[in-house]
Fold this sequence. Notes:
The complex is a heterodimer.
Chain A: E1 13-15, H1 19-36, E2 42-48, H2 49-58, H3 60-68, H4 81-88, E3 91-96, E4 105-113, E5 116-126, E6 129-135, E7 138-142, E8 148-154, H5 159-169, E9 174-181, E10 187-194, H6 200-207, E11 212-218
Parallel strand pairs in A: 2-3
Antiparallel strand pairs in A: 2-4, 4-5, 5-6, 6-7, 8-10, 8-11, 9-10
Chain B: H1 6-15, H2 20-32, H3 36-59, H4 72-82, H5 89-106, E1 110-112, H6 122-134, H7 138-158, H8 163-166, H9 168-186, H10 191-203, H11 221-240, H12 249-262, H13 279-291
Helix pairs in contact in B: 2-7, 3-5, 3-7, 4-5, 5-6, 5-11, 6-9, 6-11, 7-9, 9-10, 9-11, 10-11, 10-12
Protein name (chain B): L-serine dehydratase
Catalytic activity (chain B): L-serine = pyruvate + NH4(+)
GO molecular function, one term (chain B): L-serine ammonia-lyase activity
Amino acid sequence: MRFKNVFSIIGPVMVGPSSSHTAGAVRIGRVARQLLGRTPDQAVITLYGSFAETYSGHGTDLAIVGGLLNMDTDDDRIPEAFSEAEKAGMRFELRRGTGTAPHPNFVKIEAAADGKEISVSGASIGGGNIEIHTMNDFAAGCSGYYPTLVIAHDDQVGVLASITAAASDAGLNIGFMNVDRKERQGAALTVVECDRRPDGALLDALSSLPHIHGVSVVDLTS
Amino acid sequence: MRFRTLAELMRICRQESLTITELMIAEQAHETGESREAIVGQMAAYYQVMKTAVHKGIESDVQSRSGLVGGDARKVNEHTAASEPCVGEWAGKAMAYALAVSEVNASMGRIVATPTAGSCGIIPGVFVSAQERFGWTDEKMVNGLFCAGAIGYVIANNSFISGAEGGCQAEVGSAIGMAAGALVELRGGSPEQSVHAVGLALKNTLGLICDPVAGLVEIPCIVRNGLGAVNALAAADMALAGVRSAIPSDEVIGVMLEVGSKMPGELRETALGGLAQTPTGRKLTEKINAAKPPSL
Lengths: 222, 296
């Protein structure tokens, strides 16, 4: 189901004018911010389709920048997101994407801070709901509707078993999981949607497992 | 959720003697693992945001961010109060309130997406005016939003709710169907009558394109919200009178998917066709672009 429950239809509370082009855009920007784990020093925002044609009137640019500053959809500062970015020391560049995109409302965000670089691409599918297509150029497939673990690891036997065992030990239920790898035994990324926010102990446990290189939490629910 | 179609929704309600509202609250609690109080509390907070937006739009001359539109809600509200409106007093109020919320949205004010921001005026317009008219409690209205949400959930998962995907029929059309179905239940109609109201309403917006001037959620979106609220009242009345949707509502939703999928990109929220590309639409676009040059 693309739309998960009643509040994906009635809601979110948001500043206007467009749930696809403003609220959904805020949320994709916020996913990128949280994957990076801090406010970006710089970001490149590439818009496709209806996003590229109508971003200005909808404040899509303000919305994505607001999301990169970790604002939620109803943050009154979204109309002033550019000056907020300047205050936070975040530089950004807007680009128009070329070629076809997988959805009429599509954006790719590349962000960096302190030598760490991430990328997120996603679609805004209506009513503020989103689908994250890729994270760091791996297939992601998550919705932003649940607290989400993003785990970078090697493609090795037993890694997924150790991840799910750690979640099980923490009493954490998994609702959705997606694994993608660059090549056999190469770099891989696992995205796990959980029914509640993973706690610090679980993150420590996951980080200490063999073949795991990085654990991030993306949580738009709070 | 135990239902995927309106037919399933109706069947479960009939078998378990539930209203659509009661079923939706129970299903939502199960899906999210939250208490009934927490869920209803969240919806109650949303209803307050809707009411605040209605009052803001009616009591002040809200101007859109572009300066192109604004103040129409107030005009319609004053006309409704001062003279005998053609559509009658209460449809006039619903129209004024829907315009109000959509104008607040266009000013980058705070609203609730119902189901989207482009269509955020219709449900508050219908709900807040009906509450005043019938003296209903906030609690009753908050419950009614769950009924609207259940209908929207089915439409969204079988078709679409965004203009970029399926045209304005997906946004304004969905909102009218949701408002009509919920109003039927609020007035004491059966789940079956609610579902017929959805089909009756959607049939009247099939094929509606999304063609915002300059890509702004202003022209024609705001006016379509005002007229959409009146449509919702009319569809609810037809269903309460016993009129049935001869084509079952689930099949109408299927048509929305078919029509939206065939709609060219120019007519799906890109501002490359329709009203956006009329001589006046283009002139207004140039005016806005001159004031704020696009950086792409």
